[in-house]
Hints:
By secondary structure, this protein is mainly beta. The protein is 9% helix and 38% strand. It is built from ten helices and 79 strands. The longest helix has 22 residues, at 2-23.
Amino acid sequence: MRGHMKKCIRKAAAAVLSAALLVTSESPAFAQNIQQTAVPADVITEQSRLEDGIAQTGYISDSFSEKRQEVQKEDTEGLLKSAAEQLPGQYRTQQLPAVRNQGGYGTCWAFSTIACMEINLMKKGYGETDLSELQLIYFATHSVKDKLGGLTGDDYVYTDTDINYLMRGGNYEMAVNTLSDWLSAAREESAPYETAADVLDTGLSDELAYADVAHLQNYRSYNLQNMEDVKQAVMDYGAVGISYYAYTYSGFASNQYYNADTAGYYCYDEQTTNHAVTVVGWDDDYPAQNFPTAPEGNGAWIVRNSWGSDFGEDGYFYISYYDQSLSGSAVAFEAEPADNYDNNYQYDGSAFAMMTGKQQFKAANVFTAKANENGTEQIAAASFEVMAKQMDYTVSIYTGLTDVDNPESGELKAQKSGSFSSGDKDNLLKTVAFDEPVTVNQGEIFSVVAAFAGSGGQSVMLYYDCARTLNGIQANCAAQPHQSYIYLNEYYGWSDYGNTNNTNFRIKAFTNNVAEPDTAVTAVKLNKHALELNWQQSEQLTAEVLPENAANKNVIWTSSDSGVAEVSQEGVVTAKGAGSAVITVETEDGKMQDSCTVTVKKPITDIKITGTGELKAGDKAALSVVILPQDTTDDTTVVWTSSDTNIAAVDQNGLVTALSKGTVTITAKAGTHTAEHTLVITQAAPKPTESTTEATTEATKPTQKPTESTTEATTEAPKPTPKPTESTTEATTEAPKPTPKPTESTTEAPKPTQKPTEATTKPTESTTEVTKPSEQPTETPTQKPDTEPTKPDTEEKVVYEMRQDAEGVWHYYANDVIAADYCGMACNEYGWWYIQNGDVNFTYTGMACNEYGWWYFNNGQLDLTFYGLANNEYGTWFYTNGQLNFGFTGMLIPDDRWLYVRNGQVLTDYTGMAVNEYGWWYFKDGQLDFSYTGMACNEYGWWYFNNGQLNLTFNGLADNEYGTWFYTNGQLNFGFTGMLIPDDRWLYVRNGQVLTDYTGMAVNDYGWWYFKDGAIDFVYTGMAVNEYGWWYFNNGVIDFAYTGIGSNEYGQWYFNRGTIDFGYSGTFFADGRQYTIRNGLVIS
């Protein structure tokens, strides 16, 4: 009992002592954040529009921006001097993402942080990843529920709603806490910055908080006065973040601190920082004269801004080493892809923190495994955040705790030690990966114990959450019992620091979920083994991998015939064509299989009736039906019915018999689809009477069939071959056939297989009016054949007529004899008819011609209403008003395809360009190819097509078999010779073509550059020649300031201001030796 009381007294004393230690910490990391001072007007006012002459900032002072003094490191063996001499005088990180623009908001702190993360990922070889600044900003100022519940009680409350969170500003401390809590960073497309104004109203979904694709692994601050350390950090991490005082009221123009001509910035006043930027390099020789006021020496940091590429030199500028407003610290960020760990066990969710510590102590956080339901996890790493100068640390994992108030009461499962040394007290977030992961089960309690020992009498300060209000945002924090513990010495033992102080240490554990070990797949079962789909229909198949706890449940889906049915790797089956296919699923583990037979049907989608709309009583007419799609798998049997069999009857072949005057509806049904056709039955026409005179009456409207006649006609009928007119002479001219292709066309456009040639004009407007490729043509045909011909004057008369015989069959007669050898056209008072071997062929539908053109017949009768396509053995032809339209050249859409027509004929082999009022289009094999993206040419030049349409806004590169070409406004620019930067490479272009094999020199506004294999070689240092002489290149650019010695395969040469001085003979001292020179050549 007495021992228990003593233990309680010790814990209470430890709690009081640790609280006192908290109060007496002299350098709280977030001291500046704690002050509730007003944010400067240039931060909180939306003022970034350049027309107002102001650029935007937004950095709030924090521990990183506090001024620091240079600390001289001990260098007893001259090691530091040696390391400094190894650093180059000029350096710039090569792989950099595109410059971003924070626009009209005070968000520079987020842009600088995200830039550091992106650059570090590229430095590590992960390629360019565009991360979302907006997501970081939002979740740095808005609380969200932690996936594992560890941040309960840590939230944000706005105490001032007059300023939105995009204008409140921020700093690196807010960014570090948000990133380390895994609330960032997501891809840019997840939360595009361009939607920031909308997000002010709508907010972001909580689910987006954990859509991160990159994790902050470590960060470290550096004393900016210790320049060699900062330079080494830039080389190691790719970039560091700093802040400075940005004078914004002149926009991008020069002012007392900034020289817009040289992009040099030097603030000679003691100013508070207000803008965060990113250091990507340095130049020790950057001239002091490049600043509006010369500092005490040369040298500048190469800095990436967040004001877009119009600022400075493509978004970059130079800050003098001697700038009086620079932040005290530079911050380096180390990032990794977000798949490095599955779970983050943590308790610190506040944006603000303070520190506690001493020279030697231990701290711990105790967690309960809960991330992998009904499974196990492996503790792979842990992290802590401290301020230290020199320290040793040991991180340990204990499981199976026997005393919930003693983090070390369990079994020690993993331990990792290390050390940290700096010339000054620096902030450090350190992730420690264990050599072997520690397995914990669901519900198991484990602890992360971090032991710290400062060296040389130095204290180690550990971060913990604190509740503070900054610029209208109140951050709350809360702790629960049995979470955070501190161990000061053996006498006091472990005390529940979190329960006593209502705060938690920034100590985290990172785990990965683990499936049950060695559980092999035994079978796979599909939810269906037979499936019927209609064409273009999709259905999800699901595969159950057994047993349920199998370690590897990955499956592979395949189709035996993807032309019938395709299957995605998610099991979605899509019907592509009629037939059958077998869908098979196979497991990666064990190659277990199951299959489903898919039958694809093409059902009837539409049915249409074609044929005449008017009959005379007593007439007959055959109606026809069109069933779509033509390759349907449904039963295509058609059932014909009449709405009134007293008016008209129809048989099952579609033959209609008109019985009496009236209106009737003829219905055709195929499957479940029906079509209706309205027929108007008129009074029967009088029978023909005998006549000995020639007919002079014009033929009636071509809607009726011939009627029965018992009187022998003596009226002269026209001869079949001329244009339909009355004629008494026998025709001798044979009707023309459409054997040749239309001859009215001009020269065919060049095909895209030829190498481009220079052209200077754009496509001209077409003279043929056509329709937009998304609508059916609406122009009404007006041309009809002449039905009133003149009768030729001839002595010999032959009387032609059409009449029925005694059996009701219509024949074509010449002088009362059936013209059995005649095939062609003939007319009577009811219209024009198709004659075959002397008989009227009422079943014929197709083309026929005379010397005046080609005509379209439907059920034996000339159809002057026909508008569309018809075929014969010579091709497919375009008809308007029943006549082949040889005058039409353009585009048609008869069904769901756009076709190319020239002089009335559909050119199924045409590949090239065509135009309508909506633009120029690309045709392949006679059809508009909406999927085509690439190059095509006509007589006016080469052009760029996007999704089948000429894109006159395209500016960029395109390829064909002859190379890569430069386009401006959609046209290949043969007049361009120079340099381009389409991605992260500078390319050389001559006469519009990218010369991938070019090695030599080229010039732009920024100087002369050295190209190798068509691209600038930024690492090349040496000699190169052009027609003006030999030149010296340094890192790919002519160094006009260089005076010294250069060499090539011909010897060593004397360069004066970047070029060989062939006129110089004498001596030159360099590199500790004397050179003897004659006519520019070193001879000794």
